[in-house]
Amino acid sequence: MTKEEHIRQLMSDPIYAIMGNAELSLGRSNIDAARQLIEAGVTIIQYREKHKTWREKYAEATAIAKLCHDHKVTFIMNDSVDLAIACGADGIHVGQDDAPATVVRRLAGPDVVIGVSTNTIDEMKQALADGADYVGFGPMFPTASKKDAHEVVSDEAKHFALHFSLPVVTIGGISLENIGSLYKEGFRSFAMISAIVGKEDMTAAVQELRNALKA
Ligand SMILES: Cc1ncc(COP(=O)(O)OP(=O)(O)O)c(N)n1
Ligand SMILES: Cc1ncsc1CCOP(=O)(O)O
Ligand SMILES: [Mg+2]
């Protein structure tokens, strides 16, 4: 798939699944989690592994990238540009403490999707200026999945995000109970850890989230 096709997929499928470390994923391995997510019909998967060595991550991510490519699933690497390039990821997601999008672009080239985490209006403007393809925006709600998460986004930043020119992927504390409220506010893309890989039956979880968006 081309970069444009990946971005289209990101804009048309509201569900963006993030694989956490094993403790956020009921002890599953990342490869098992990826297999189950693909079976559940997820089309955007981010690899977010904070504990393993580079070589362990490289081995897993290379296998997951192949699985994703075989199933036309967009595979995004969190944090690490070198791992993303090495494993053949379709995209890279960087936070405010990671390499800036300008540097990621220089290293990874024009064909890779770049996502940047944002919490404020200034960060969204900077991500756009730096050549990001989408922004992660949050936390929308309090979350236990990220120890150093920012404060929940302000109403002003939400309003800006709803009119922003880049695709906005909301994140942070999104659940079956509150995803509908974000949809009603106008948001169309939802990245989740605990609401998907934190559930025993991920197929049912994804289906319930999709149903909640239709309700
Ligand atoms: C889609 C999406 N949005 C935001 C984040 C958070 O990234 P970051 O701020 O770098 O924090 P970590 O995930 O690395 O702890 C994300 N991963 N994905
Ligand atoms: C990675 C990240 N970035 C901002 S909040 C968050 C955690 C998202 O996890 P959950 O969906 O379980 O709240
Ligand atoms: Mg990061």
UniProtKB/TrEMBL annotation:
<protein>
    <recommendedName>
        <fullName>Thiamine-phosphate synthase</fullName>
        <ecNumber>2.5.1.3</ecNumber>
    </recommendedName>
</protein>
<dbReference type="InterPro" id="IPR036206">
    <property type="entry name" value="ThiamineP_synth_sf"/>
</dbReference>
<keyword id="KW-0784">Thiamine biosynthesis</keyword>
<feature type="binding site">
    <location>
        <position position="146"/>
    </location>
    <ligand>
        <name>4-amino-2-methyl-5-(diphosphooxymethyl)pyrimidine</name>
    </ligand>
</feature>
<dbReference type="GO" id="GO:0004789">
    <property type="term" value="F:thiamine-phosphate diphosphorylase activity"/>
</dbReference>
<dbReference type="Pfam" id="PF02581">
    <property type="entry name" value="TMP-TENI"/>
</dbReference>
<dbReference type="GO" id="GO:0009229">
    <property type="term" value="P:thiamine diphosphate biosynthetic process"/>
</dbReference>
<dbReference type="GO" id="GO:0009228">
    <property type="term" value="P:thiamine biosynthetic process"/>
</dbReference>
<dbReference type="GO" id="GO:0000287">
    <property type="term" value="F:magnesium ion binding"/>
</dbReference>
<feature type="binding site">
    <location>
        <position position="173"/>
    </location>
    <ligand>
        <name>2-[(2R,5Z)-2-carboxy-4-methylthiazol-5(2H)-ylidene]ethyl phosphate</name>
    </ligand>
</feature>
<keyword id="KW-0479">Metal-binding</keyword>
<feature type="binding site">
    <location>
        <position position="79"/>
    </location>
    <ligand>
        <name>Mg(2+)</name>
    </ligand>
</feature>
<feature type="binding site">
    <location>
        <position position="117"/>
    </location>
    <ligand>
        <name>4-amino-2-methyl-5-(diphosphooxymethyl)pyrimidine</name>
    </ligand>
</feature>
<dbReference type="GO" id="GO:0005737">
    <property type="term" value="C:cytoplasm"/>
</dbReference>
<dbReference type="InterPro" id="IPR013785">
    <property type="entry name" value="Aldolase_TIM"/>
</dbReference>
<comment type="pathway">
    <text>Cofactor biosynthesis; thiamine diphosphate biosynthesis; thiamine phosphate from 4-amino-2-methyl-5-diphosphomethylpyrimidine and 4-methyl-5-(2-phosphoethyl)-thiazole: step 1/1.</text>
</comment>
<feature type="binding site">
    <location>
        <position position="78"/>
    </location>
    <ligand>
        <name>4-amino-2-methyl-5-(diphosphooxymethyl)pyrimidine</name>
    </ligand>
</feature>
<feature type="binding site">
    <location>
        <begin position="193"/>
        <end position="194"/>
    </location>
    <ligand>
        <name>2-[(2R,5Z)-2-carboxy-4-methylthiazol-5(2H)-ylidene]ethyl phosphate</name>
    </ligand>
</feature>
<comment type="function">
    <text>Condenses 4-methyl-5-(beta-hydroxyethyl)thiazole monophosphate (THZ-P) and 2-methyl-4-amino-5-hydroxymethyl pyrimidine pyrophosphate (HMP-PP) to form thiamine monophosphate (TMP).</text>
</comment>
<dbReference type="InterPro" id="IPR022998">
    <property type="entry name" value="ThiamineP_synth_TenI"/>
</dbReference>
<feature type="binding site">
    <location>
        <position position="98"/>
    </location>
    <ligand>
        <name>Mg(2+)</name>
    </ligand>
</feature>
<keyword id="KW-0808">Transferase</keyword>
<keyword id="KW-0460">Magnesium</keyword>
<dbReference type="InterPro" id="IPR034291">
    <property type="entry name" value="TMP_synthase"/>
</dbReference>
<feature type="domain" description="Thiamine phosphate synthase/TenI">
    <location>
        <begin position="15"/>
        <end position="196"/>
    </location>
</feature>
<feature type="binding site">
    <location>
        <begin position="46"/>
        <end position="50"/>
    </location>
    <ligand>
        <name>4-amino-2-methyl-5-(diphosphooxymethyl)pyrimidine</name>
    </ligand>
</feature>
<feature type="binding site">
    <location>
        <begin position="143"/>
        <end position="145"/>
    </location>
    <ligand>
        <name>2-[(2R,5Z)-2-carboxy-4-methylthiazol-5(2H)-ylidene]ethyl phosphate</name>
    </ligand>
</feature>
<comment type="similarity">
    <text>Belongs to the thiamine-phosphate synthase family.</text>
</comment>
